[in-house]
Design brief:
This protein is about 40% helix and about 10% strand. It has one domain: Rossmann fold (3-Layer(aba) Sandwich), CATH 3.40.50. With about 240 residues, the protein is α/β, with parallel strands linked by helices.
Length: about 240
């Protein structure tokens, strides 16, 4: 599921409420029937959270030690820890990086280390708080590829201001001024100019061009170019 909205709309507040990092002024959040404000550790056993800045979560001299950090705190046996760390690093495409120093990595690689450090704890839910906002284009692609791979295995709540990152989400919540103003599929959101305008959202150029051409929505210019060439090759032409 995706969460979008203008700056200050409530995206980061929502995800922090769900993880017990903030306490509500009124009402209460529930995750698996538990209150994150009063039972944060129980909730965090089931919910992993990936933040915007990967540097804030890197604490060890080597990548494998960083990924193992949470397991060490839980007292997981050494042999089990090795297996789980290897599995988590393989899941994010970082096998072979075990003895790399985190400060030598690119932004996308650092964020994947942070993601592996969450996956190794085997959460049922992943909360992503604008995980690509501090990355360049290459880093964004790296992280999003891994997120798409995980979507079939985990429940994912992805808060972002990049609408194209949610093109294959099952549903999208639109938050504005702390209120849910819409709960729709990505296609319905992208096609609703009024809804986008009312919530100070705008389609990025690639999505806007695909919509204008009547083609399926694509995240990258390369994907859209491939679709256009396929239309031309089929002799159907582009409307």
């Amino acid at each position: 599921m995706g969460v979008v909205g203008p700056n200050g709309g409530g995206k980061s507040t929502l995800v922090r409420l769900l993880n017990g990092l903030l306490k509500p002024d009124a009402g209460a959040a529930r995750v698996y029937g538990r209150n994150p404000a009063t039972e944060p550790f129980e909730v965090r056993r089931k919910v992993g959270m990936l933040f915007q800045n990967p540097d804030n979560g890197l604490v060890a001299p080597f990548v494998e030690d960083d990924v193992a950090f949470g397991l060490e705190n839980l007292g997981v046996p050494r042999e089990e820890m090795r297996v789980r760390v290897a599995q988590a690093m393989r899941a994010v495409g970082l096998s072979g990086y075990e003895r790399r120093e985190p400060h030598t990595l690119s932004g996308g690689e650092k964020q994947r280390v942070a993601l592996a450090g969450i996956l190794v704890l085997e959460p049922e839910v992943l909360i992503l708080d604008e995980p690509t906002s501090m990355l360049d284009a290459a880093g964004r692609r790296e992280v999003l590829e891994k997120v798409r791979y995980l979507r079939g295995e985990k429940t994912i709540l992805h808060a972002t201001h990049h609408l194209e990152e949610l093109a294959d989400a099952d549903r999208v919540l639109v938050l504005n001024d702390g209120e849910v103003t819409a709960d729709v599929t990505p296609d319905r959101l992208f096609a609703n100019a009024g809804l986008l305008r009312e919530n100070r959202l705008s389609l990025p150029p690639v999505l806007r061009l695909a919509a204008d051409l009547g083609l399926p929505l694509h995240r990258t210019p390369e994907d859209l170019a491939t679709e256009i060439l396929a239309e031309i090759g089929d002799g159907a032409g582009v409307p």
